Amino acid sequence: MFDHAWLRRGADRPPLVRWSRRLVVLATLSLAALALTTTASGATDKIVRTQGDESFVPNSKIMATLKFTPGHLVVRSGDTLTLQHSDKSDEPHTLSIVNADEVPSTIEQVFECGEPGTVCDDVFSLFSQEPTTATFVNGPGTGPGIDGRLDTLVVFPGESISEPVTAPAGTTLRFICAIHPWMQGRIDVQ
Ligand SMILES: [Cu+2]
What we know:
Blueprint: H1 14-22, E1 36-38, E2 44-51, E3 54-57, E4 61-64, E5 67-69, E6 72-75, E7 80-85, E8 93-98, H2 107-112, H3 119-124, E9 135-137, E10 152-155, E11 160-164, E12 172-176, E13 184-189
Parallel strand pairs: 2-7, 6-13
Antiparallel strand pairs: 1-2, 2-5, 3-4, 7-11, 8-10, 8-12, 9-10, 12-13
């Protein structure tokens, strides 16, 4: 059976994962302006960048400031969403659509995400084999593109990946990184 260790930092040292999530310093939401480019068709390319870093000083500090920037996007149905790995860590990230009530809202929910039965585990289970490069996986039962639960973009350092947002106008999509579930965002589709 596929082992999701690639998605779990230090799978051989779960206590560190637990504590890193417990002690994580939540990044403040950035209000940085959307980076926009307009294509010939008039569709707009919206970019979400991962930013921040992690640090660990034995017996002193463990901290993560990894975040999505921006964390709130307004897109038109049909626009292309690009996820770009722009942070200082060497870890992959996912941008995974989840239900609003699945977005972790407590520290406990953040560090438990990934355990069996959680939405993070549902994301990991999408992968029949270990990805090694930027990938889009369509959530089961959803339409093509980004429109529903578990639709997932994955990026590794130095990479970006683009996929159209196909959800109809009026949809609100919530997303998290399944690897670092304090990384959270929202897409309002117009
Ligand atoms: Cu992440």
